[in-house]
Amino acid sequence: MQDHHAGRDFLKLADFTPAEIATFVDAAAELKRRRQVGERFEPLAGKTVALLFEKPSTRTRVSFQAGIAQLGGQSFFLRPDELQLSRGEPIKDTARIIDRYCEALVIRTFGQEIVEEFGRWMEHPVVNALTNETHPCQGLCDLLTIREKKGTWKGLKVCHLGDIWNVCHSLMMGSAMTGMDFYAGRPAGYDPDPEQVEIAQLWARANGTKIVYTQSLEEAITDADVVYANTWHSMATENREQRMVDWRPYQVNEQVLALAKPDAIFMHCLPGYRGEEMTEEVIEGSRSVVWDQGENRMHTEKAILALTMEAGLADELVLRPSLSSQG
Description:
CATH architecture of the largest domain: 3-Layer(aba) Sandwich
Helix content: 40-55%
CATH topology of the largest domain: Rossmann fold
């Protein structure tokens, strides 16, 4: 297998081909299997990863630090208020120095342009752990979870109900690239980034699938294979009170979930707000795969770091190339 991942940044899903995305997912599945059977695999031994988080985090920070340790590497957390960036040092100066000290940088920040600039000035891989526009690590995790539970991607219908924000954009992109129809139910005035939609539509047309943003809850969720709830008030959004009013009709409860296919799965990237975007009965119900999904964040992040930081690992980790052809 030709390795197209080594040395590259992981800034958004659209930077990769569908085959390359499938390789990340295959590698994550193999890393998960090895973890479950207690097999040690430490390709990052002797390597250091810096974590720069300008936004709050539970799952992303813990999963990256745990995953790096499982791969034999070391990580350390950089507090933005303790860096010279907070005093006006240019990103290009900070980036080039971190590049001399560490073998990778994981960054969780605001604008996509920030991670792009770090990537421009660093030779070692830069991993986007979330921006306002995209959340590619979550997108990859979602693809792994869907394939685990459904056995394939092709032909599935994904329904997203929640803020049109970074997770929605990455789920849309991942769906389009892997042959799934993507429907997002949302109130009037909550629209996706046109540039993100334009790129995703190219992949959707190539795969013969649909991208639909609709105000109709019924259109979005009817016969869905995957129902994905998300918060109504993301970290960088305002007007929380108005959002609670606007999004209330889009809550995922037992009656709404019944409109999806009988074997539909329920997903949520977390943090989740019971009584808002979903009910307690849904997130704790038999269709919920939220906790497996949360675990998969760690395994997909391990795959991102392993494949971008070490050449040749795709050959070792993707033991069953036929997995890529499933979707």
